[in-house]
Amino acid sequence: MTVLSSHMRADHRACDDEFANMENVVAEGNWDKASEVFENFASDLNHHFDMEEDVMFPAFEARGAGHCNPTPVMIMEHTQMRNVLKQMREDIKSQNKDHFFGLSETLMMTIQQHNMKEEQMMYPMIDESLAHEGQMLLDEMKAYPRKDHK
After folding, report:
1. What digits encode the pLDDT tens for the residues 5-56?
2. What would the 3-class secondary structure string for the chain be?
3. pTM of the predicted structure, to 2 decimals
């Protein structure tokens, strides 16, 4: 495992922890805090997607992603998750706990399946093709600016 995939796996775990914290705060019904915690989670998850889409995936494709290029599927799943996040944001604004938890369950299942694909298939392929550029790409991703996805 290279520094690149190690970092991305750790980022997955950090987002998972934030997700669990977000659900706990929403369950308490503290809507002001829930909004803040949700926005932190959404920002971090979107930043993870952005680093992959704008730095890591293009580098992988430039090196010849091979006959099995999974990046379009990963990007499609990112889009699906971003759409769920937008709906969850609306549920927090309207304080609709039941709908929020229905969406959060969908999002958690999607994230788990997506992360498994990345960690078991995508990242090993990237490690192999970008081994010599791993630290440089990691530095670029760490410096990558956050975008507003609201």
Report:
1. 899 999 999 999 999 999 999 999 999 999 999 999 999 999 999 999 999 9
2. CCHHHHHHHHHHHHHHHHHHHHHHHHHHCCHHHHHHHHHHHHHHHHHHHHHHHHHHHHHHHHCCCCCCCCHHHHHHHHHHHHHHHHHHHHHHHCCCHHHHHHHHHHHHHHHHHHHHHHHHHHHHHHHHHHHHHHHHHHHHHHCCCCCCCC
3. 0.93
Cα separation, 82 vs 37, in Å, equals 16
In a domain, 92, yes or no: yes
**149 in a domain, yes or no?**
no
How many CA within 13 A on the CB side of residue 8?
A: 30
Residue 112 is part of a domain; what is its CATH number?
1.20.120.520
Instruction: Provide the domain count of the chain.
Output: 1
Q: Domain limits at 137?
A: 3-142
User: How do residues 50-85 score in pLDDT, each as one tens digit?
Assistant: 999 999 999 998 887 656 778 999 999 999 999 999
Residue with token string 């956050």: 146
